[in-house]
């Protein structure tokens, strides 16, 4: 006997699983930044994922910052002293890249160019006033024109 349920078709099930897991794959399957990603000094480029703020031993460092490495007490200063229980970690040094985009408002402000004379004495290829006037009549009230040009004609009655 053949299996005819459309819901349990293997291709359909595979497609449903793919659609359900694509959002997670976007975060998991993103290619990395490399072993030494560069720090972008450009403020207009948004840092994603790492942000050049990584330290060695980051998991233990985060656990220490959350307070998971010691018991919660108020009175034991020796136990809660962060200097004695600090996690050993170092900053990772990243190479730095100069800004890619230029900031013309900061480097060339408008007030430095305002007083300069704009000299453009080249001859234009076309007359800029050539198409100023419309070559036909416009904004005419055709109703009034029809009244003005109307000539009454009496009907011709023949008595034949």
TrEMBL record:
Query: What is the name of this protein?
Result: Uncharacterized protein
């Amino acid at each position: 006997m053949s299996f005819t349920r459309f819901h349990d078709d293997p291709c359909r099930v595979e497609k449903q699983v793919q659609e359900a897991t694509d959002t997670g794959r976007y975060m998991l399957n993103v290619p990395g930044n490399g072993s030494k990603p560069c720090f972008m000094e450009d403020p207009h480029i948004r840092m994603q994922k790492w942000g050049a703020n990584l330290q060695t031993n980051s998991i233990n460092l985060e656990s220490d910052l959350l307070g998971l490495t010691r018991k919660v007490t108020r009175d034991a200063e020796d136990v809660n002293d962060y200097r004695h229980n600090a996690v050993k970690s170092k900053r990772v040094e990243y190479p730095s890249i100069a800004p890619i985009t230029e900031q013309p408002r900061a480097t060339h402000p408008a007030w430095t160019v305002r007083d300069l004379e704009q000299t453009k004495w080249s001859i234009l290829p076309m007359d800029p006033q050539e198409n100023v006037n419309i070559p036909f009549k416009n904004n005419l009230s055709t109703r009034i024109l029809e009244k003005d040009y109307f000539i009454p004609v009496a009907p011709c009655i023949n008595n034949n």
